[in-house]
Amino acid sequence: MSLFLRDYLTVVWFGLAAVLLAGLLLGVSAAIRPSRPSYDKQIAYESGVDPVGMGWSQSQIRYYVFALLFVIFDVEAVFIFPWAANIERYGVFGLVVMLAFIVLLLDGLVYAWKRGLLRWV
Amino acid sequence: MELLVFVIASGMVLVGAVGVVAMRNPVHSALGLVLTLFGVAVHFVAMEAHFLAAVQVIVYAGAIVVLFLFVIMLLGVDTAEDLSIEPVPIQRPLAVIIGVGTVVLVGTAVIRTRDTIARGPELEASGDSNIRLLARNLFSDQVLAFELTSVLFIVAVAGTVLMTRKQKRVAPDRDRVGS
Amino acid sequence: MIAAIVAQLGEWTAPVIDWHALAPELILVVGINLVLFIDLNIGEARKWAMATLTGFVLLAAFVPVVTLAVIGDASREMFDGRYVVDHYALILKAIFLLVAYVVVLMSQNELEEGGYYQGEFYVLMLCSVLGMVMMASSRDLVSIFVALELLSIPAYMMAAWRKRDVRSNEAGVKYYLLGVFASAVLLYGMSFLYGTTGSTKLVEIGEVLASGDLIAMQVVAIAFVIAGLAFKVSAVPFHSWAPDTYEGAPTPVTAFFSVASKAAGFVALMSLIFLAFPTATGVYQPLIWVLAVLTMTVGNVMALRQTNIVRMLAYSSVSQGGFILMPLAVAGTGDASQSAVRAVIVYLLIYAFMNLGAFAVVIAVSRKTRSGEITSFGGLFGYAPGMAAVMTIFMASLAGIPPLGGWIAKFNVFKTVIDAGSGAAYALAVIAAVNTVIAAAYYMRVLRQVWMMPAPDGDITPLATPAPVTAALGITAIGTLVLGVLPGLVLRFGDLQDLTGALGR
Question: C163 vs chain A: nearest CA distance in angstroms?
Answer without folding.
Answer: 15
